[in-house]
Automatic annotation (TrEMBL), chains A, B:
<feature type="DNA-binding region" description="H-T-H motif">
    <location>
        <begin position="31"/>
        <end position="50"/>
    </location>
</feature>
<protein>
    <submittedName>
        <fullName>TetR/AcrR family transcriptional regulator</fullName>
    </submittedName>
</protein>
<dbReference type="InterPro" id="IPR001647">
    <property type="entry name" value="HTH_TetR"/>
</dbReference>
<dbReference type="InterPro" id="IPR050109">
    <property type="entry name" value="HTH-type_TetR-like_transc_reg"/>
</dbReference>
<keyword id="KW-0678">Repressor</keyword>
<dbReference type="InterPro" id="IPR036271">
    <property type="entry name" value="Tet_transcr_reg_TetR-rel_C_sf"/>
</dbReference>
<dbReference type="InterPro" id="IPR009057">
    <property type="entry name" value="Homeodomain-like_sf"/>
</dbReference>
<keyword id="KW-0805">Transcription regulation</keyword>
<keyword id="KW-0238">DNA-binding</keyword>
<feature type="domain" description="HTH tetR-type">
    <location>
        <begin position="8"/>
        <end position="68"/>
    </location>
</feature>
<dbReference type="InterPro" id="IPR039538">
    <property type="entry name" value="BetI_C"/>
</dbReference>
<feature type="region of interest" description="Disordered">
    <location>
        <begin position="81"/>
        <end position="103"/>
    </location>
</feature>
<dbReference type="Pfam" id="PF13977">
    <property type="entry name" value="TetR_C_6"/>
</dbReference>
<dbReference type="Pfam" id="PF00440">
    <property type="entry name" value="TetR_N"/>
</dbReference>
<keyword id="KW-0804">Transcription</keyword>
Amino acid sequence: MPKKVDHEARRLEIAEALWRIASTRGLDGVSLRDVAAEADISLGRLQHYFRTKDEMLLFALRHINSLADQRIRERIGALAAEPGTGAGPSAESEAETGQGPPPGAVLRECLMGMLPLDEKSRVGTLVGAAYFARAIHDERLREEAREGIPRLAEFLASLLRSARERGETAGGRALDPYTEAMLLISLVDGLTAYTLLGVQTGEEAAQRLDAHLDRLFADR
Amino acid sequence: MPKKVDHEARRLEIAEALWRIASTRGLDGVSLRDVAAEADISLGRLQHYFRTKDEMLLFALRHINSLADQRIRERIGALAAEPGTGAGPSAESEAETGQGPPPGAVLRECLMGMLPLDEKSRVGTLVGAAYFARAIHDERLREEAREGIPRLAEFLASLLRSARERGETAGGRALDPYTEAMLLISLVDGLTAYTLLGVQTGEEAAQRLDAHLDRLFADR
């Protein structure tokens, strides 16, 4: 195996060890030594790949987010292939005719994909929670959120705009799409927190999100 | 000073030391020894008041929540005294005539009081964030949320019901009040998280919450 690939593979193995710790006992007080033990390598070897806990946490978070992105893309892809949602022979022809899956349905898949509804997304949100607790006191980790969240909000706002143009939205008071997008992201964040705390089940969280989306979309 | 009062006063001093740490560097990896140092007492003396970090965190969280409750009550009291909001000579006569402050306005004060909009509420939400990160992996700490959140949701739901009975709500699709209340609590939770992360200012968080409330209430 080429050296670069090996390096990346080893970093992923370490990230997975970190996720196992994050999803069972959390990251409070967890040292690089603990993660090395979980990954079954020496501390010196771990430090060859990550010099600090924050560096490791950031890598693990980015990777778990990219896996979540991929799962969400697959769910959107499945939507496009469903009958009656404008499924065409290829994504290109859909774009040409403007007949992709309804933007409201795409928006729903994105938001549902962010909730802890199965084991994979649960681990992702647990790593996210551990990251959040550190990031509020760490300028470098905060940067990640300050860049990522407005980008996500812009994307969701563009879906809301498309939905309006296609007449998918309900008749109620229309908010500015960016405001609506930030409200949706915040809502999912809070629903996730109360699911992780056991205040509600994942199913209840999904039902509550759907109740809010039903208010925004006339018919999705 | 009687011994019991002294005991409680000392526990409050320790809780305040914990808040100072929580609001500056967070509680990740913070030991009882660190808190004893911040409170300027010996570790042995601290352990006379709190045996474990979780016991101390729970006491500090309950106390900071009760201070927040008190601030919110004062803000609601101030509403009742404002002209044009049904201010009567006493709370009793208001209850008799059903002319207290509008339930929508009370709801808004409760929710705004939960956002980190000033230094006191900011410290409260920082302690809450530190508690959250531990609670998702600690059954006893989770219990606190599993009891407290449904109680809060019930209270907010009762305000929503009163608002509907008084015709304060907007014409849009009406959700079940408990669902609406859980959505509001989740929304405030997420808005708080993104304010603490510096994704938005406190002012922006308040504006976004108001945009959502304006959608629910026709005229508040």
